[in-house]
Design brief:
- The chain is of the alpha+beta class and about 200 residues long.
- It has one domain (about 1-195): Ribonuclease T2-like (Ribonuclease Rh, Chain A).
- Helices cover about 30% and strands about 10% of the residues.
- The protein has a 4-stranded antiparallel β-sheet with strand order 3-2-1-4.
- The chain is globular and about 50 Å long.
- It starts with a helix and ends in a 12-residue tail after the last strand.
- InterPro entries: Ribonuclease_T2_eukaryotic, RNase_T2-like, RNase_T2-like_sf, RNase_T2_His_AS_2.
- Pfam families: Ribonuclease_T2.
- Belongs to the RNase T2 family.
- Keywords: Disulfide bond, Membrane, Transmembrane, Transmembrane helix.
């Protein structure tokens, strides 16, 4: 499994299915398109545990997490990152998503040891979700997280890749083959971010 998990951190693709392309605004919170992001959690742990950017956090995962998980839904600009933290009048409220939490624990998990399970959800909502409030389909916290779960179900990367005989294993796969498999299914151009472990060893992931 080492080659697969260490080489692929996450796949991002512009969610044409949501239909929010080229939405121009005239505020500091303007954005142009939505990015939906998934990650291979074992590789995410390699990145967090091997880099100083983790701020000494330790990443782990439970045995019931064996597939791609959600990172977030990000309003984004053509000319750079952001916007971020758009509306502090809508703070994260766990009570808004209690009926989703059992699914989110597996599909949108917090992998950082010693932090509350809601800390990752709070971060994604505060940083990204509040920037999509002007969209009817994402205009509240519950809709934002429900949309992430719906997209995760629709775009099951593990099965998409398995259909092309790309599975977690010691086999080396071409990045181009992985890209083609996902782009063919999603009908979108994707951005793949790869991570390589600095030291060859099995992590706690």
């Amino acid at each position: 499994m080492k080659t697969y998990t260490q080489n692929i951190l996450q796949v991002l693709f512009i969610c044409g299915v949501i239909g929010f392309f080229a939405l121009w605004q005239r505020s500091s919170n303007a954005w142009d398109f939505i990015v939906y992001t998934q990650q291979w959690p074992e590789a995410a742990c390699v990145d967090i545990n091997d880099t100083k950017s983790s701020h000494h956090h330790i990443c782990t995962m439970t045995r019931n997490i064996q597939t791609w998980t959600i990172h977030g839904i990000w309003p984004s600009r053509f000319d750079g990152d952001g916007p971020f933290y758009c509306d502090n009048s809508y703070p994260f409220q766990e009570s808004e998503i209690t009926n989703l939490e059992n699914i989110m624990d597996n599909k949108w998990p917090n992998l950082i040891i010693g932090t509350a399970k809601t800390s990752f959800w709070k971060h994604e909502w505060t940083k990204h979700g509040t920037c999509a409030l002007n969209l009817l389909d994402l205009d509240c916290e519950h809709k934002y997280f429900k949309m992430g779960l719906d997209l995760n179900k629709r775009f099951d990367y593990k099965h998409i890749l398995e259909d092309r005989n790309i599975t977690p294993s010691e086999t080396r796969y071409k990045l181009a083959d992985m890209r083609e498999a996902i782009e063919s299914f999603t009908k979108s151009k994707i951005n793949m971010q790869c991570i390589f472990a600095k030291v060859s060893y099995r992590t706690a992931c």
